[in-house]
Amino acid sequence: MLFHVRMRVHLPHDLDPAVAEDLKSREKARAHELQRAGTWRHLWRVAGCYANISIFDVDSHEQLHDILSGLPLFPYLDIDVTPLARHPSALPDT
Ligand SMILES: O=C(O)C[C@H]1C=CC(=O)O1
User: Fold this and answer.
1) Which of 23, 40, 48, 64 could in theory staple to 34 by disulfide, Cβ–Cβ 3.0 to 4.6 A?
2) What per-residue confidence (pLDDT) applies to 8?
3) Where is each Muconolactone isomerase domain found (predicted)?
């Protein structure tokens, strides 16, 4: 199952810089792990924003929820999820 996910990051301005760097470092490691597993299929920066557009490939809504809510930055993310279905005019393997 494919999902389009938009994440906007809102780190508090008074967050200790060392804590922020630790969160970003752990988030990056987890993002790499999920990309290598094929679960986090696309990860794009939204130009001009501290936000990303991602495509996740998971087995269930519950798996997606577990992954997103387990991200180190989760407490600071606004997340919008859109389920994707195959378009009838899409060429195979696109
Ligand atoms: O920077 C972001 O968009 C937030 C998050 C997503 C992947 C990652 O490494 O950080």
Assistant:
1) 40
2) 98
3) 1-89
Annotation: CATH topology of 2-84: Alpha-Beta Plaits (3.30.70)
Ligand 1 atom closest to Cα of residue 77: 4
Instruction: For a ligand 1 pocket test, name from 6, 30, 46, 73 the mutation site with the most ligand atoms within 8 angstroms of its C-beta.
Output: 73
Which residue type, as a one-letter code, is found at position 7?
M
Burial of 87 (0-12, 13-18, 19+ CB in 10 A): exposed
Strands 40-45 and 77-84: unpaired
Q: Report how far residue 85's alpha carbon sits from residue 28's, in angstroms, rounded to the nearest whole number.
A: 28
